[in-house]
Fold:
Amino acid sequence: MIGEYFHGTSRKLGVVTLVLACALMAGWSRSISTLDVVTVPLGATTVVQWASTDRQLLWVIDSSLAPGDAFSFNLWDSDAVMPLNEILKEYRWTWHFYGMGTAEAFTGQESIWVVPYMMVVIPLTLVSLILIVWNPRIPVVRSQQPPEPLSNQIG
Structure:
């Protein structure tokens, strides 16, 4: 019975989308009390960091490092939550809209993108709801034969 319900790809995709929304919701609730940072070096002087803090997702590209310093970071680090205002003191907004935005460091060698968890989790949840619940109509196949004349039907 359950196998028949998940016969199409849209419902399977809906479940995958719902699992992704739940994982992001867990990150959202963790970001209230914890700062998590994942750092990946891109060459000797540049790192990319993904951070989660203060109900926000951050993506930072830092190219201001001395040669070789990019490899001195931990891959994953956790700390007490840091308010977004504290992080953005060294940045100026280049674009900002409803909590989302991009900013550049005053030195010009660092850029940051900010997206609230709410702007990702709620649309993913709605998309998963539509994919799981929506039932497409099955097209009705009509015959291509012309209708019979009325004289043949009466008599």
Summary: The chain has five helices and seven strands. The helical segments are 2-5, 9-30, 84-87, 118-133, 150-154. The chain has two domains: 1-31+121-135, 33-116. The chain has a mean pLDDT of 84.
